[in-house]
Design brief:
49% of the residues lie in helices and 0% in strands. The protein is mainly alpha-helical and 57 residues long. It has one domain. The structure holds zinc ion. The site of zinc ion (ZN) has 6 residues, from loops.
Length: 57
């Protein structure tokens, strides 16, 4: 878990808002302590955004 990233990046209250999607996608890149939630994935797909998230470990 990337604690430093979490401390400087507060999660927005609404996951499927613009801010929420940005937070979750950045989180997947910088930390990834949790998988992307289904409602976040659905919203990303609904918006036609193509995302590939790979673990760096
Ligand atoms: Zn995390």
């Amino acid at each position: 878990m990337n604690l430093k990233w979490h401390l400087s990046n507060e999660p927005p209250p609404l996951r499927t808002s613009d801010e929420g999607l940005v937070w979750h996608l950045k989180h997947a890149v910088h930390c990834g302590c949790r998988p992307l939630l289904n409602d976040v994935k659905d919203e990303v797909e609904n918006r036609g955004i193509f995302v590939v998230v790979q673990s760096r470990t």
